[in-house]
From TrEMBL:
GO terms of molecular function: ATP binding; ATP hydrolysis activity; phosphate transmembrane transporter activity
Keywords (A to Z) from UniProt: ATP-binding, Cell membrane, Membrane, Nucleotide-binding, Phosphate transport, Translocase, Transport
Source organism: Oceanirhabdus seepicola
Protein name: Phosphate ABC transporter ATP-binding protein
Protein task: Part of the ABC transporter complex PstSACB involved in phosphate import. Responsible for energy coupling to the transport system.
SUPFAM superfamilies (alphabetical): P-loop containing nucleoside triphosphate hydrolases
Record PANTHER family: ABC TRANSPORTER I FAMILY MEMBER 17
GO CC, one annotated term: plasma membrane
């Protein structure tokens, strides 16, 4: 089933048109990778999916992003609710400078959960969901800043899981990580897709090939090709996709 339907999406930063007429349906409980050269609009497009671009000055968005048959760009759409249902993980792990426990409970508390037992359950479930529980269960009251980069990124994923999203947007989540931490996060993404829909921007084509079910190839704000990942990497239909994935591009 398609969980998001993007129809004729265009985005301008001032006069600069960064996203051009994108149409794309995102499948539920699958991993969709966005690939393409630097500056082609992958992160901008990702941010369109939960209206993170609203936070940037001078941005105009035209077109629709349908989430369960509602256009999230209607003025009446509740953006806080949207960002609860569509969470985001960034390139650089960005834990809050507080305990591991408080990092996880921050979101649920904002949404009104106060009961200590319920919060304890959320912490355990989220950390287990992010494959971090065993490593940190004895130091929940210690600062998150004392974790390794890879652990911090899994903590950020756990923090996102704590608010029970349906979709998780990830913007190059492993680019600041060492190879072992990268493997752990990749394995985690494979686990996450059993319950969640994941859309991930990656510079790493091997990563897209390893972990995604669908891949979109972006070039100068347009989607050149969007297909099953196997087809994109073994049988691309567009010459530009072929050039990019074989490293002949630019
Ligand atoms: N906040 C902003 N204000 C103005 N222009 C922006 C802003 N963010 C991105 N852009 C421009 O929009 C275009 C697309 O940028 P975007 O960051 O989405 O590309 P990207 O494919 O994610 O690149 P990278 O792989 O390098 O992160 C670029 O020309 C960029 O300079």
């Amino acid at each position: 089933m398609d969980i998001l339907k993007v129809n004729d999406l265009n985005l301008h930063y001032g006069k600069n048109r960064a996203i051009k007429n994108i149409n794309m349906n995102i499948k539920e409980k699958a991993v969709t990778a966005l690939i393409g050269p630097s500056g082609c609009g992958k992160s901008t497009f990702l941010r369109c999916l939960n209206r993170m671009n609203d936070l940037i000055d001078n941005v105009t968005v035209k077109g629709e992003v349908m989430f369960e048959d509602n256009n999230i760009y209607l003025n009446s759409y509740d953006v806080n609710e949207l960002r609860k249902r569509i969470g985001m993980v960034f390139q650089k792990p960005n834990p809050f400078p507080t305990s591991i426990y408080n990092n996880i409970t921050y979101g649920p508390k904002l949404h009104g959960i106060k009961d200590k037992k319920r919060l304890d359950e959320i912490v355990e479930k989220s950390l287990k969901g992010a494959a971090l529980w065993e490593e940190v269960k004895d130091r929940l009251d210690k600062s998150a800043m004392g974790l390794s980069g890879g652990q911090q990124q899994r903590l950020c994923i756990a923090r996102t899981l704590a608010i029970e999203p349906e979709i998780i947007l990830m913007d190059e989540p492993t680019s600041a990580l060492d190879p072992i931490s990268t493997t752990k996060v990749e394995e985690l993404i494979q686990e996450l897709k059993k319950k969640y829909t994941v859309v991930i921007v990656t510079h790493n084509m091997q990563q897209a090939a390893r972990i995604s079910d669908y891949t979109a190839f972006f070039l100068t704000g347009e989607v050149v090709e969007f297909n099953n990942t196997d087809d994109i990497f073994t049988n691309p239909l567009d010459k530009r996709t072929e050039d990019y994935i074989t490293g002949r591009f630019g």
